[in-house]
Amino acid sequence: MTDAVRETEKIVKFVKDYFEKNHLKGAVLGISGGKDSGVVAAIMCKALGPENVVGITLPCHSKEADAADARLVAEKFGFELLNIDLTDVFDAFKVQIGKLGGFSEEELKNSDINLKPRLRMASVYYMAALLSAIKGGTYVVPGTSNACELYVGYFTKGGDSVYDIAPIYSLTVDEVIKVGEVLGVPEKVLYRTPDDGISGLSDEDKMGVKYADIGKIIRGQEVDEKEREKIEELHRKAAHKFNIPVYKTEG
User: Fold this and answer.
1) Whole-model pTM above 0.85?
2) C-beta separation of 196 from 45 below 8 A
3) pLDDT tens digits, residue range 145-201?
4) Does residue 60 contact residue 120 with C-beta atoms inside 8 Å?
5) CA 214, CA 188: separation in Å to the nearest integer?
6) I need a labelling partner for 11 at 20 to 30 A (CA). Which of 93, 102, 120, 183 fits?
């Protein structure tokens, strides 16, 4: 990205044009307190006006700091911020799973981690439908995944992979930050170490690779061969998340 101001303007126009063409009223998105949701919220407010943007915090055995950072974003850009605490929903689900057998924590770990974004996305879409009914116009859900996460499959099927419009889909992490700087996203949020708010690990620790290296590969730049191999292996393993086989009858 050579001109962050120009790129930001193009993204905002992309969003505005999509909403006008499809006669949409507003946007609902989860606000995690991280840079991606903060930047997307800023983009939506710029394109639609803050009165047409609703953010939702969706704690689920989460850190209070996440909610505090989410409030920083809402206060900065002036959109309504709701809270739906999913902790009891998650725990109730786990009780039902426990009735199926005595599974170990290690066996449950990956399922538990992925359940949280799935509950969150169901909640965001529920609120989008509810607001559409209340306000007399369609509300949709913007995605908050960036190009680096998408390249290595760092997202949950049926969770944060579900959205209606993707404003930062083609931006690397570094580019997301540049757009955030243009839009004035609070520094505490924009420069925060990325984490999923679920596992207790940073994104990079969890993946075992650096976002900067993923970005270089996406942009065709030089990367240490060992790091390239690790990133490309993650990319290959994530192929099933993008390519859903569909059987078609003949004739």
Assistant:
1) yes
2) no
3) 999 999 999 999 999 999 999 999 999 999 999 999 999 999 999 999 877 665 667
4) yes
5) 23
6) 120
- 161 token code pair: 């992979």
> Position of tokens 């066996």?
107
DSSP label at residue 244:
-
Spacing of C-alpha 139 from chain mean position: 17
- Rounded Cα distance, 229 and 123, in Å: 37
| Ranges 52-56, 102-106, 200-204, 205-209, most confident | 52-56
Q: What single letter denotes the amino acid at residue 27?
A: A
Strand stretches in the chain, DSSP E: 26-30, 53-57, 80-83, 139-140
CA distance 38 to 217: 25
Domains of the chain: residue spans and CATH: 4-241 (3.40.50.620)
pLDDT tens, position by position, 37-93: 999 999 999 999 999 999 999 999 988 889 999 999 999 999 999 999 999 999 999
Structure tokens at 16: 């505005």
Residue with tokens 């270089």, as numbered in its chain = 216
The token duo for 45 is 């407010």
Count other C-beta atoms under 10 Å from residue 131's C-beta.
Answer: 21
Q: How many angstroms separate the CA atoms of 90 and 100, rounded?
A: 16
- Give residues with Cβ within 8 angstroms of 93, minimum separation 6: 115, 119
CA 58/CA 47 separation, integer angstroms: 24
Is residue 233 left, alpha or beta, with left meaning phi > 0 and alpha meaning psi from -120 to 50? Answer: alpha
